[in-house]
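<tokenise_the_fold>
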Amino acid sequence: MSLLEIENLHVSYDGIRAVRGIDLKLEAGEIVSLIGANGAGKSSTLRAIC
């Protein structure tokens, strides 16, 4: 059983796409990180999840 499962996540601000089509599946006990260049959508992704 998944602790968190996200399919096809999209986030936009005033019509500008910040996140496009993220899929994520986390199992209990897993440790993960979210990495990427500046402006890649890391913070937007976390805000959408929380």
